[in-house]
């Protein structure tokens, strides 16, 4: 089959690789019908995720059709149309038993495209199929379901829920890329009074307003001073960091009000300074996290019921064999305007 193979920092190729095979009774082989590229894949290509070694097939988000299953699989069967989650929980270890699937201690967690071969291919082996594959309702399209593989559960769990967004709150989202836009989308479910987007690119701030932000601030326009002029002037109840660089993390801690919360979603490849000398006395809570994807069934139910709109996220569409072009477009989002790219089997 063809797959997108990581060959070390800065090097990747769409090339021939062996077809995946069942290795465990809990495995399934899934034919990829739709797949996307994540910002984390770009972090891997930069060398920010050293656990991912050369020769690995990238990708951890997909929709597909089950081709075959191991003898132990009970919840899906050949022919089923499924969402392939970015998290593959064993379902049995101490962490999985309390829903913290991202920290699975039994060979699961975030493994696709990270520690085992991933979804940016014509076929993928899905470990722990019973707990990592979700059958899709007939009225949910491949493209709309694709957004539930990672960015919507991630923004909802690690950003909105960890940040304890509540009705009437002031929420600031730092970074209006795909994850930031997903945070805006899911924060709206809790009726905050304001959602303020901060970014360095006007095009992304324009997108944030389309996705439901009530205000957009350019980084160069001093968001700290601007926020002091809004409401009671104390800052945001919740700041969601959705970039993953030291500057945006440190900015997030300046934007939060006393007693507020900074929910870090961004994948950081470099150390960031934690200014405890000013944060400790302000009762600021900082949370980090890898998505657990425990919310996927709920989000899927909302999507099927028409209560969750994913239609604005995908801006560019490709055939699966145009993977290299899709990477170029996604990596150059400042010029291409790409939010999410989707690739489909042709």
TrEMBL record:
The keyword Zinc applies. It comes from Jatrophihabitans cynanchi. PANTHER family: NADP-DEPENDENT ISOPROPANOL DEHYDROGENASE (PTHR42813:SF4), ZINC-TYPE ALCOHOL DEHYDROGENASE-LIKE (PTHR42813). The keyword Zinc applies. Pfam families: ADH_N (PF08240), ADH_zinc_N (PF00107). It comes from the Bacteria. This is Zinc-dependent alcohol dehydrogenase family protein. CDD domains: FDH_like_ADH2. Residues 10-343 form the Enoyl reductase (ER) domain. Belongs to the zinc-containing alcohol dehydrogenase family. PROSITE patterns: ADH_ZINC. Its cofactor is Zn(2+). InterPro entries: ADH-like_C, ADH-like_N, ADH_Zn_CS, ER, GroES-like_sf, NAD(P)-bd_dom_sf. Gene3D superfamilies: Medium-chain alcohol dehydrogenases, catalytic domain (3.90.180.10), NAD(P)-binding Rossmann-like Domain (3.40.50.720).
